[in-house]
Amino acid sequence: MKVLAAMSGGVDSAVAAARAVEAGHDVVGVHLALSRMPGTLRTGSRGCCTVEDSNDAWRACDKLGIPFYVWDFSDRFAEDVVQDFVDEYEAGRTPNPCMRCNEKIKFAALLEKALALGFDAVCTGHYAKVLRDEDGAPELHRAADWAKDQSYVLGVLTREQLEHCMFPLAETPSKAEVRAEAEARGLTVANKPDSYDICFIPDGDTRGWLAERIEMKPGEIVDHEGNALGQHEGAQAFTVGQRKGLRLGRPAADGKPRFVLEIRPKDNKVIVGPEALLAVDQLRGIRISWAGVPIAEVFTGEKFDCMVQVRAHGDPVQAVAHMERTEDGQDNLVVNLPEGMRGVAPGQTMVVYQGSRVLGQATIDSARSSAWDPTQVG
Question: What are the record keywords, sorted (predicted)?
């Protein structure tokens, strides 16, 4: 098979490419240039897609004896990931840029170009599996190493995309084994730290970064009963579940800390309250996609048991879900959580599982709690 290996410059993608070569595939490596700032440098484990990462990717391909290219996707990245991130925060939601990057860049733009150039598959270093059902259709499943499993961030993949995905690390029992293999193969990235945080905000100061791109206006901080508590400098800089940085000056009556329960950019208000009110018991999702052939209940509207995960490294929670069509014709994924889930924000992605299989994903449009009624806050 003719395989395009997406080379991030990290150890996982390097070993994945090596395994594809060893399996006898015709492999070509490509690094995605997602920023037009040539001086961008990596800071320890912060950031990715930097100059150092590009050089590391080239060295890995040179060691493997495969061609190496750099493709400039910076315009697509700026529009589909960075601008989407800004727009979502401006609307008072909390987006996941890694999900958008996988959806729009790594498994849309990249795969589209790869197929146009005659490649059969795109190979990445993600920890996830593609299995086949009894009819031969692809399904996305968790990796063997659940501690490193990345099926959550791949939940946006469609059946058509899964047909052309290759994840050579799927059955690898641990990251330590990947590093040991990289060292044995003479790959210089064997001990390179994993990247984390948002790649286009390498210093980790999301609030400061947003302040340069969103017009922040002072407004009220009120409690869950509508009582004014203080002022903020911009509602969009807050996230649901946040405790620090509220600067209220006086404690709650019970002396316990307050948490952000809701953000209302239209009213420019931040609603806060006790930790207990962070638990939600129903999620409603939009922008739904299915990873493979949807289960029958998606078409019938019947309820089905599942597990729901809302963070890349979060624990899945037992749920009962069903599809619902609104009066204006929009499909919603309604997820009820018998045991509740803490601190969920609109804009986050919920990925739905049955066992190890990823059924699909949706962007959370609303997160509701039976413990309090947000409409009572004027």
Answer: ATP-binding, Cytoplasm, Disulfide bond, Nucleotide-binding, RNA-binding, Transferase, tRNA processing, tRNA-binding
